[in-house]
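All the exercises in this workshop are built on plain-text protein records. A record pairs a protein's sequence with a compact description of its fold. Read left to right, the backbone structure tokens trace the chain's path through space. Once this layout is familiar, the rest of the handout is easier to follow. Here is such a record, shown just as it appears in the course material:
>
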Amino acid sequence: MAFNMTRDERETFLADVHVGVLALDEPSRGPLTVPVWYDYEPGGNLWFITGRNSRKGALVAEGTRVSLCAQTESAPYQYVSVEGPVSEIRDANGTDELRAMARRYLGPEQGNRYAEANSSGESIVVVVTPQRWLTVDYGKRG
């Protein structure tokens, strides 16, 4: 029996709120794998925010290939892993994008407070174009 998700299922799953695990190649070391907040709308690009001078920020450049895995934490387990190139890097737009991301994960009140406290201007938005997908939905066991 196949446990793969359909295109609609995987895109809906990825659009839900999950903490993603981002993997980036790090020369002379193993891949850097770190948890990240991300955003995605079905059919669109994936994006996350990171510090310009962070390890993630130092490893990304347009064209860099990254992978992100999002999963459920309880049975029946599901996950979506997506891979693709970084298609855009831009300065974070003041607190607007950070606020949107923080509200996605923390709700309106806490998200606004988080964005205000962390709006140093040293962040970048990294946009990834999904190209390869790997999915599992163990709920399809029947």
Remarks:
- The first helix runs from residue 7 to 15.
- The mean pLDDT is 94.
- Residues 7-141 form a domain with the Pnp Oxidase; Chain A fold (CATH 2.30.110.10).
- The beta strands are 20-24, 32-36, 39-40, 46-51, 65-71, 78-91, 123-128, 132-137.
